[in-house]
């Protein structure tokens, strides 16, 4: 007697798998997902963590979103930047944010960054890299400021300054030249903006504006569009036509109000005014 | 099964018609289309096997450790409680939830993709009710 399974199951439907394998063998490619092709950075300073990200989302060679938000909310004191497939990073961080909230309510304590890191790495390892999410996770909790990077296959690093995404080399060059321990807030913010700007100007997959997020023990400050090095200039000429540029040749007015005259037709005298019996 | 595996083992697939069998035990052509030997014997789906066996493998690891540390009674009691909690006399009506079983399995305060990404329940066929009931009563 086979009992019903107590396990919940994979949650994904694999019934199209045979068809997909057949199609890919025939040479028909899978559709391309929107990627973020990003520059994301995180760095440790005297009072906490600063996270930075650019704001461009690409779909192959086309810019899909000129001002997308890559710094996702996990809890009040923990944030996560996401590179890779845009949908994967958003849904993964949203799922972990919900699980962190439930966990914090259950334990009754402030959530810790290592908890979020463990949840993320275990989930990404389970999917064997098919979830294309490369994350920079940072926050300040009861044990101090922590900064982690999580790769799509589930490996993690704990470092004082990290960069991920297609512009990571450009940003890491800036960090390697100028980072030092125990920087002040203003200096660290300048460094993060310089690193992201290096990614924006030298990498095709990154662009538009710089977002930053400063996390300290007391509060978190989200600086959306902190630097805008790529603002569009106003057009020199106005392309509006003045009224009367085109001459009017014919004018016709049609009234849309319908007027009705209702004439009641009565019966042959004896049945005058008797209504129809519809019972 | 004395293994302490964390990750599901890669199994070579044996040809089987269990996935697509109808109430007679044969391949159900009406629901699943004609039989294809290639689809049954070969498999390219490492990720599918891994995902489907993940919870079972992790669970087996924990029960095996319980057995080695506390003795056979420990996993036996845990599985007995689970079996009692999963008894369901109702028809397999579409929305089903078992909080007691969730608590015993340790997932009462966890969300997974299956919890928020299932498509709307209007998409399932109404005929499934009879098939599910048949499968259930013949068990």
Automatic annotation (TrEMBL), chain A:
GO BP terms in the entry: proteolysis involved in protein catabolic process
Gene Ontology cellular component annotations, sorted alphabetically: cytoplasm; nucleus; proteasome core complex, beta-subunit complex
Main location: nucleus
Compartments (UniProt record): Nucleus
Pfam family of the protein (one): Pr_beta_C
Database matches in InterPro entries: Ntn_hydrolases_N (IPR029055), Pept_T1A_subB (IPR000243), Proteasome_bsu_C (IPR024689), Proteasome_sua/b (IPR001353), Proteasome_suB-type (IPR023333)
Stretches assigned to the Proteasome beta subunit C-terminal domain: 229-262
MF-aspect GO terms: threonine-type endopeptidase activity
Natural source organism: Trametes coccinea (strain BRFM310)
Top-level enzyme category: hydrolase
PANTHER family cross-referenced by the UniProt entry: METALLOPROTEASE TLDD, PROTEASOME SUBUNIT BETA TYPE-7
Protein known as: proteasome endopeptidase complex
High-level lineage: Eukaryota, Fungi, Dikarya, Basidiomycota, Agaricomycotina
Top-rank taxon: Eukaryota
Residues annotated as the enzyme's active site: 38
Keyword Repeat recorded: no
Catalytic reaction annotation: Cleavage of peptide bonds with very broad specificity
CDD domains on file: proteasome_beta_type_7
Keywords linked to the UniProt accession: Cytoplasm, Hydrolase, Nucleus, Protease, Proteasome, Threonine protease
Entry's EC annotation: 3.4.25.1
Automatic annotation (TrEMBL), chain B:
Region (Disordered): 1-22
GO terms, biological process: proteasome assembly
InterPro entries for this protein: Ump1
One GO CC annotation: proteasome complex
Domain of life: Eukaryota
This protein's UniProt keywords: Chaperone, Proteasome
Keyword Chaperone tagged: yes
The family this protein is said to belong to: Belongs to the POMP/UMP1 family.
Designated name of the protein: Proteasome maturation factor UMP1
Organism: Trametes coccinea (strain BRFM310) (Pycnoporus coccineus)
């Amino acid at each position: 007697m086979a009992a019903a399974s107590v396990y919940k199951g994979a949650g994904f439907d694999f019934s199209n798998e045979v068809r997909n394998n057949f199609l890919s063998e025939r040479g028909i490619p899978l559709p391309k997902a929107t990627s973020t092709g990003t520059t994301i950075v995180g760095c440790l300073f005297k009072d906490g963590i600063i996270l930075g990200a650019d704001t461009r989302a690409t779909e192959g060679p086309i810019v899909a979103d000129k001002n997308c938000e890559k710094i996702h909310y996990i809890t009040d004191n923990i944030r996560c930047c996401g590179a890779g497939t845009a949908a994967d990073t958003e849904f993964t961080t949203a799922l972990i944010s919900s699980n962190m909230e439930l966990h914090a309510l259950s334990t009754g304590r402030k959530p810790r960054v290592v908890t979020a890191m463990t949840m993320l790495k275990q989930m990404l390892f389970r999917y064997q890299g098919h979830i294309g999410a490369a994350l920079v996770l940072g926050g300040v909790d009861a044990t101090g400021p922590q900064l982690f990077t999580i790769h799509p296959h589930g490996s993690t690093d704990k470092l004082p300054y990290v960069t991920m995404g297609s512009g990571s080399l450009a940003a890491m060059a800036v960090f390697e030249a100028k980072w030092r321990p125990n920087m002040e807030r203003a200096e660290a913010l300048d460094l993060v903006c310089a690193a992201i700007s290096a990614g924006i100007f030298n990498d095709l997959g990154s662009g538009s504006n710089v977002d930053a997020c400063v996390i300290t023990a007391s509060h978190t400050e989200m600086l959306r569009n902190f630097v805008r090095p790529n603002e569009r200039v106003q057009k020199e000429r106005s392309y509006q036509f003045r009224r009367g540029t085109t001459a009017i040749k014919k004018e016709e007015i049609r009234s849309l109000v319908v007027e009705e005259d209702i004439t009641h037709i009565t019966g042959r005298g004896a049945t005058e005014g008797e209504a129809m019996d519809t019972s | 099964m004395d293994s302490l595996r964390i990750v599901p083992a890669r199994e070579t697939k044996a040809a089987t018609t269990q996935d697509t069998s109808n109430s007679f035990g044969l391949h159900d052509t009406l629901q699943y289309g004609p039989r294809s030997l290639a689809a049954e014997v070969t498999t390219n789906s490492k990720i599918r096997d891994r995902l489907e066996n993940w919870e079972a493998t992790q669970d087996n690891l924990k029960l095996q450790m319980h057995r080695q540390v506390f003795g056979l009674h420990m996993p036996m009691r845990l599985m007995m409680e689970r079996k009692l909690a999963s008894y369901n006399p109702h028809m397999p009506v579409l929305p089903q939830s078992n909080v007691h079983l969730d608590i015993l399995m340790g997932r009462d305060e966890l969300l997974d993709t299956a919890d928020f990404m299932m498509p709307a329940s209007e998409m399932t066929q109404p005929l499934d009710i009879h098939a599910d009931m048949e499968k259930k009563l013949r068990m």
